[in-house]
Amino acid sequence: MNLIAPSPFGSEHFQNLKITAISQKIRGKLALPALLLVSFFLLAPLLLILRYSFDLYDPKQLMQDIFTLQNYYKIYSDPFYKNVLWVTAQIAFLSTIFTLLFAIPVAYFVSRTQSERRRSFLIVIIVLPLLLGNAVRSAAWMLVMGTKGLINASLIGLGLADNPITILFTPTAVVVALVSVLLPYAIITLQSVMDSIPTTLEEAARALGYSPFHSFMRIVFPLAMPGIIAAGAICFALAMNAYATPVLIGGPKMKMMGPVVYEQIAKISNWPFGSALACILMLTTLVLTILSTRYLHKKYF
Domain extents for the chain? Predict the structure, then answer.
């Protein structure tokens, strides 16, 4: 009679470990082409911009290969550029908050839609604006918000206003237009996260006497917080780097970092200073995103 129990670490166990290790190596090799493409087409230009930001600019000779911190000192010492960065961060923050406020209930509704046909139709409607460029959508908002646009025509027609009100070329108009641009990204991100939250948890909460609103706030909202953080980070980064919307909706007096960077590089040909502004923009976006993510993780996890 064999009294020795079979070892849990038999040949079959080690064979499974070997297969797992081989599959991990294969996945690593499959990811190598994508990593090389990202490094070549994204990281290399970013490093080149960082290198340009330390060059000296001369109005006659343009960019000179002379190391200097003058570009960054100009950004730090000039109140105009500090104000531009502050306005950009404010508008990006407000756009992100309003986008999440609108996206969360829509994503929840789509996620809990039982009919697959209706669900697919809703997703198509949500994604459809992404097929249009930001310039086209901004032009549409100009027709809506203009002095003779749809909003003013409706207000005057209903007797709510005697004269057209100024909507276009204001920070409020930029926030509204940015929210419309960011909503599809936020809704799709949140919807995929809410799909992974079992509906049985909400059913159990309602069986215990919770209202639908309280069951959402106490169960779905905390569990969806990783998706909310991810959607907020994506929207904030896109809003900080927006170009077409601030130019068309904000007008020439509305200064945000994206148009200012383009103006320095494309119009003035001041590549060193434009590169320095771009680096400051990227660094600010990265730092604010990391800080907000860490704060939310400490608060909810």
Answer: 98-301
Cα(249)–Cα(167) distance, integer angstroms: 9
CB 254, CB 246: distance < 8 Å:
yes
Please give the CATH number for the structural domain made up of 98-301.
Answer: 1.10.3720.10
The position carrying tokens 């994503």 is 107
Class of residue 103 by CB neighbours under 10 A (exposed 0-12, middle 13-18, buried 19+): buried
Instruction: For residue 243, count CB atoms less than 10 angstroms from its CB and return exposed for 0-12, middle for 13-18, buried for 19 or more.
Output: middle
Residue in this structure with the two tokens 């994604």, named with its chain if needed: 127
The pTM assigned to this predicted structure is 0.81
CA-based torsion, 227, 228, 229, 233: positive or negative? positive
Q: What is the pLDDT of residues 107-123, one digit of tens each?
A: 999 999 988 889 889 99
- Kindly state the helix (H) or strand (E) to which residue 120 belongs, with its residue range: helix 116-127
